[in-house]
Amino acid sequence: MSDAPKTRPKRVFTAEHRRNMSEAKKGIPLSEEHRLAVSKAQKGRIFSEEHKQKLSESKKGKTLEPRSKKTIKKISETKSGVPKPDLTCPHCLKVGGGGFMYYWHFENCKYNPSRFTQK
Q: Measured on CA atoms in the order 112, 116, 100, 53, is the torsion positive or negative?
């Protein structure tokens, strides 16, 4: 056995090198599969209160571009008046909508027989 470290030393890039790497990556389109993988990796992140405060401070005083406001209004008008579909739990046949159905029913339903099987 050798006494060599099991991990490589951390590589430190200069500011110029980091800028060059950034410029090289800009404009490259990401595949849908990669975008979904990145989205999945970012979901469920837990931020500290300090970090939330810093995010809040960074957003204060900034306004949306006119194009963004127009896009948001268009989406809002498209969605208004469209009813959300009702969901039906396959185990207890309860019908409802919204997040509570996913929270209390489907895989978590008390009538779900596979809920009690040992893993």
A: negative
**pLDDT single digits (tens) 65-108:** 777 888 888 888 777 777 778 899 999 999 988 778 889 998 88
User: Which amino acid, one-letter code, is at 78?
Assistant: T
pTM: 0.33
In angstroms, rounded to a whole number, what is the distance separating the alpha carbons of residues 114 and 119?
Answer: 10
d(CA 78, CA 72): 10
Q: What angle do CA 119, 113, 97 make, to 5 degrees?
A: 110
| Token couple for 74 | 């268009």
Q: How many whole angstroms separate alpha carbon 100 and alpha carbon 91?
A: 15
Is the separation of the CB atoms in 106 and 89 below 8 Å? yes
